[in-house]
């Protein structure tokens, strides 16, 4: 899972970057897990740490429109869980459906 996240982050950085320079790069892998962090001259930054069960991290960049975008994530046995203001969210459950679900739950055995 970590390899895919790192590859996606690096590809996104490479696509958005023209002649970007690495300003900061730290990486540590040991028997307890790993940690990495990098920052480029074109305002791309990523960091993550974890072990074989859970990875926590974030990545951020500046959009072509100048908007600062940041995504925090956790990847674990239940999957990849990103959180960001820029990610779409599901619409609210319609009131009629919510009432029907509540009725079903209260009348089930």
Structure in words:
7% of the residues are buried. The chain has one domain (20-107). It has 109 residues and is α+β, with helices and mostly antiparallel strands. Helix content is 25%, strand content 41%. The mean pLDDT is 88. Strand 3 and strand 4 (55-62) form a beta hairpin. The chain has helices at residues 2-16, 95-106, and strands at residues 22-30, 33-40, 45-50, 55-62, 68-76, 79-83.
Condensed summary:
The chain contains two helices and six strands. With 109 residues, the protein is of the alpha+beta class. Strands 1-2-3-4-5-6 form a six-stranded antiparallel β-sheet, with helices on one face.
**Mean pLDDT across all amino acids:** 88
The assembly state of the depicted protein chains is single chain
**Strand order, biggest sheet?**
1-2-3-4-5-6
Strand content: 35-45%
Helix content: 10-25%
Q: Count of helical segments? A: 2
Weakly predicted, low-confidence segments: none
| Main sheet summary | 6 strands, antiparallel
Structural classification: alpha+beta
Sum up the structure in keywords.
109 residues; alpha+beta; flat
Question: What is the topology?
Answer:
Layout: H1 2-16, E1 22-30, E2 33-40, E3 45-50, E4 55-62, E5 68-76, E6 79-83, H2 95-106
Antiparallel strand pairs: 1-2, 2-3, 3-4, 4-5, 5-6
Keywords: Cuticle, Signal
GO molecular function: structural constituent of chitin-based larval cuticle
Signal peptide: 1-17
């Amino acid at each position: 899972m970590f390899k895919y996240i790192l590859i996606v982050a690096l590809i996104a950085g490479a696509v958005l970057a023209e002649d970007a320079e690495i300003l900061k790069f730290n990486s540590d892998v040991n028997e307890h897990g790993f940690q990495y962090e990098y920052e480029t001259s074109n305002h791309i930054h990523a960091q993550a740490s974890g072990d074989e069960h859970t990875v926590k991290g974030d990545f951020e960049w500046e959009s072509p429109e100048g908007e600062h975008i940041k995504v925090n994530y956790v990847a674990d046995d239940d999957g990849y869980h990103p959180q960001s203001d820029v990610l779409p969210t599901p619409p609210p459950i319609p009131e009629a459906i919510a009432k029907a679900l509540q009725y079903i739950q209260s009348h089930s055995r």
